[in-house]
Amino acid sequence: MEIKQLCFAADSLPLSVIVAAEVAGISLATDSSLPPGSSPFCVLSDGLKLQGAYVLLRFIGRIASLPNFYGATAYESSQIDEWLENAHVLSSGSEFENACKYINDYLGVRTFIVGHYLSIADIAIWSALAGVGVRWESLKKSKKYLNLVRWFNSISSEYDNVLSQVLLKYVSKKGSTGKQTSSKQGAATNNKVVTGNASDSGKSINKTTGEVDLPGAEIGKVCLRFAPEPSGYLHIGHSKAALLNQYFAQRYQGKVILRFDDTNPAKESNEFVDNIIKDVETLGINYEKVTYTSDYFPQMMEMAEKMIKQGKAYVDDTPREQMQKERMDGIESKCRSNSIEENMKLWKEMVAGSERGLQCCLRGKLNMQDPNKSVRDPVYYRCHPVPHHRIGSKYKLYPTYDFACPFVDSIEGITHALRSSEYHDRNAQYYRIQEDMELRKVEIYEFSRLNMVYTLLSKRKLLWFVQNGKVDGWDDPRFPTVQGIVRRGLKIEALIQFIVEQGASKNLNLMEWDKLWSINKKIIDPVCPRHTVVIEERRVLLTLADGPEQPFVRIIPRHKKYEGAGEKSTTYTKSIWIDYADALCISAGEQVTLMDWGNAIVKEIEKDQDGTIKKLTGILHLEGSVKTTKLKLTWLPEINELVSLSLHEFDYLITKKKLEEGEDFLDVLNPCTKKVTAALGDANMRNLKRGDILQLERKGYFRCDVPFIRPSKPIILFAIPDGRQQTVLK
After folding, report:
1. Structural contact between residues 56 and 6, judged by C-beta atoms closer than 8 angstroms
2. 26: which of 46, 211, 350, 705 is 20 to 30 A away, CA to CA?
3. Measuring CA to CA, how many Å separate 499 from each of 245, 448, 480, 493, 508?
4. Three-state DSSP state, 579
């Protein structure tokens, strides 16, 4: 079913409907001859009509081919509906700036209004601002609402071709709509400038949005690759690379290839391949296909032989340590002048994996005097008579990353290779090898490596923790792997926001985990259910003299501000359990508040001869005001249905924020990285599922790792940092 015609009054332009149709590529015939004040409507191809700007906008959202234009889930669609209902506030003079401030604050950690894709909510807000005209333009220049302006300009730039035409046709200089004007107000430009930041010099910056552009990129023709080595699980550093590839692919309407750089069989396995695919899908990366560098081994062997015959490569049997020294000193190898015939003879020995071949490697004949040491005859092939996890023992030699990467990038049609700036000195080598191979040049785009405080990202070092039993596996919640941080309670939306905020800059940065966990808290706090626990050790019984003789149950919300969290049953009894730490803070005769019940007065505190509190007695004082009490206590009823819990808290694996060059991580290992506390929880927690996130009242946020199985086996909950926790476990 298609839209045949959009009809509206000249004084009531449905700008958002027109913009949405243009962005979605939906052809729209318009008729602006309706009487003033008339509500817009559209005529469908079957003769049916739909009336109302936001009704039409939702219809376009549903029929458009753009991904998630009306939300990825029912929840996101409902969020979009809420934004549409309130978008009109931006056209109200008195409420305009308040609305701008609200949206600006909301966009502080977001790229789009709802979810992670452009939606009709973005279209509605963008159109409302664009339709305001001069007032919005002056606000943009005031720098009061930087987040809002960033978001507005980003959309303007991304869809410049269609939006500039719509604005040129419908938005006047005075800010009214419906009159044609020659003004280009609101239209985005694609002018480029070079940033003055030394660390980003030479990068193409979009003047409108401040975003970094890929050099020479063309819409619809960009092909990128995310190429991890299958020698471990993906960690947070890989996440940045993966998400940046996806960001540029979406921005340029291109594609991403997931390629496994499997040239080192001694370290690689199918387990890592399977889990990397799992991690990539967890991150929401939309890849075109999966390939392997090993798919191209036959072609690379042919290329190596071709380069030997062209005199561009030679076989070297210099011992490794001597070779490294000669490279550092710029001394040519004695084998560099070998004849092509001798090189081919030794190459065949390498291919056969003979004793003589094992003494050799293949090197490129580049420039041993180049100041850039990476260009000093790098190694192309080494003998490794080790079975490959995909192709078995077919090969006795394997290409190095330096040889394979430029070859496969060009052969696979990659237009831009995203690499972290730690490889900067190897860029000249990459281009020179591609040139010697006589292959199409691939543009390299550099971004800064993501480094986190108190964190090791080297897969070799992470493997040490796994092999030595310091962690429970690659998905251990103390690990910076994708599976580890998700298992600890991080939402992928938080990770995406964290990465997007950093952008594609080349500035080196050491990031705090607190920033990431603060973003995470803002996502989980509004929706996660609340439950109650009491620490099992030395818990204290408070007996209420006038408490209920028979237990009774009330049904209360699991989250007082979010109905979607559901309900829970709370049992009220004459005796209740409280934390020992709370009991220590209570004075005899003090009035306290029992959360979700009311006030009570503690009359007596019973202690043993060592001064340890053993029991409290008191009376209810439900008419008392909760505003007058100092202590707000969590409690549990004295019933058999309480569940056993095991609360796990975690700390960093090392005690130093950043390791210095050459410093051994074994010297800064944290001796205590996990603390387990036994507790009791309310009976409703029997219904928790693995992966559920909840808040334990006055204790913090937790993720359920092992749900209820039987009374003798505790539920295991992992503590989720909230961005404010600075304490070290003891």
Report:
1. yes
2. 211
3. 12, 11, 14, 10, 14
4. coil
* Residues sharing a CB contact under 8 Å with residue 681, sequence separation 6 or more, in sequence order: 531, 532, 533, 636, 642, 643, 644, 645, 696, 715
Residues forming a β-bridge with 450:
509
* Cα dist from 115 to 59, 111, 147, 348, 721, whole Å: 19, 8, 16, 56, 23
Residue 144: DSSP 8-state: S
Cβ neighbors of 28 (< 8 A, separation 6 or more) are: 3, 6, 18, 21, 22
CB 717 within 8 A of CB 646: yes
223 closest CA partner among 163, 291, 294, 151: 291
133 with 173: CB under 8 angstroms? yes
Among 227, 295, 237, 287, CA closest to 260: 227
H/E element holding 306?
helix 297-309
Q: What is the pTM of this model?
A: 0.70
Secondary structure (3-state) at 90: helix
| Segment 519-567, tens digit of pLDDT | 999 999 999 999 999 999 999 999 999 999 999 999 999 999 998 999 9
Paired sense of beta strands 3-9 and 41-44, if any? antiparallel
- Number of neighbours of residue 436 by Cβ within 10 angstroms: 17
